[in-house]
């Protein structure tokens, strides 16, 4: 899963609520990501937070491994081009 999981404390806007006196509601969890250059967010129920954290961690691990493979392929390609070049 691409994105960031953010823990937030929020106010509800009701005039007599405890959150107007500084005791905000939460923690509430939101997934944030970019889509077509715009920030997007989605509320995540507490029961799904640990699952989502694992998915985000897996995505980041995948991205790191993919970037490493691409760098190795590029170095190999550059090396082969140098070897094939007439001197």
Tags for this entry?
87 residues, alpha+beta, 3-stranded antiparallel beta sheet, 1 helix, rod-shaped
Give a structural overview.
With 87 residues, the protein is an alpha+beta fold. Helix content is 41%, strand content 29%. The chain has one helix and three strands. The protein has one helix at 49-84; strands spanning 4-10, 25-35, 38-44. A hairpin with a 2-residue loop joins strand 2 and strand 3 (38-44). The termini are far apart. The mean pLDDT is 94.
Which outline best applies? rod-shaped
Which sequence of strands runs across the widest sheet?
Answer: 1-2-3
Query: Quick check: average pLDDT?
Result: 94
The fraction of residues assigned to DSSP E strands is 25-35%
> Low-confidence segments, ≥5 residues, pLDDT <50?
none
For the record, give the distance between the C-alpha atoms at the N and C termini, rounded to a whole number. 48 Å
Oligomer: single chain
